[in-house]
Amino acid sequence: QKEVEQNSGPLSVPEGAIASLNCTYSDRGSQSFFWYRQYSGKSPELIMSIYSNGDKEDGRFTAQLNKASQYVSLLIRDSQPSDSATYLCAVTGVTGGGNKLTFGTGTQLKVEL
Amino acid sequence: SAVISQKPSRDICQRGTSLTIQCQVDSQVTMMFWYRQQPGQSLTLIATANQGSEATYESGFVIDKFPISRPNLTFSTLTVSNMSPEDSSIYLCSVAQGGSGANVLTFGAGSRLTVL
């Protein structure tokens, strides 16, 4: 079982729709959860972090965390073509003093006009 | 957040040679991380570089292949030694931000290496 799993996609949504990206993780002791966006040929950039169960909203983005289910998701409302990118879920593990960030393989999102 | 300058941005290398990638940060940071992103893959942590101590390597990565230097709190280098085509990848330097731990990462632009 991979430590952090994501559907590779591509996930295609029409402009203006809600895009829902999902991630599961295997380390039940994980403490911190992140979503990074990576445009083609670019380095990843942090868009959301979440540390406790529930929802966290930032503009058009909402991160949802359910530690009991070991599940974290990212919702993008009013999707725009500029949101087309690969979204990487990242989780800190218990090993390495809680500092090691493990990335999923990413979900490619395509927002279509 | 910190600004990270990484070079070279890309290079084409011959099999058996070595290349050193430099990472410069505009502020002092305790922990610097080197990641590899192979084509179509996600990021894999190579090692953690702390100033004044030996780098900590992840499983599957060894110092002889990926020697790392960390001479001060703003600079680090990663060398990819005795390269083979399998080393063709993007190598990313990153630093930790945030007071609660080394969790929030900022990445450099990456160094895209192609080994022929």
Poorly predicted ranges of chain B: none
Percent in helix of chain A: under 10%
Structural class of chain B: mainly beta
Order of helices and strands of chain B: EEEEEEEEEEE
- CA radius of gyration of chain B is 13 Å
Biggest sheet features of chain A: 6 strands, mixed
Distance between the termini of chain A: 36 Å
Which pair of chains forms the biggest interface, and how many residues does each contribute? A-B, 21 and 21 residues
Largest sheet of chain B: 7 strands, mixed
Strand content of chain A: over 45%
> Structural class of the secondary elements of chain A?
mainly beta
Please tell me how large the radius of gyration of chain A is. 13 Å
Secondary structure: number of strands of chain B: 11
Helix content of chain B: under 10%
**From the structure provided, what is the oligomeric state, counting identical versus distinct chains?**
heterodimer
Q: How many helical stretches of chain B? A: 0
Question: What pattern of helices and strands is seen along the backbone of chain A?
Answer: EEEEEEEEEEE
Query: How many angstroms separate the termini of chain B?
Result: 36 Å
Mean pLDDT of chain A: 91
Write a concise synopsis of the structure shown.
Chain A has 113 residues and is mainly beta. Chain A has no helices and 11 strands.
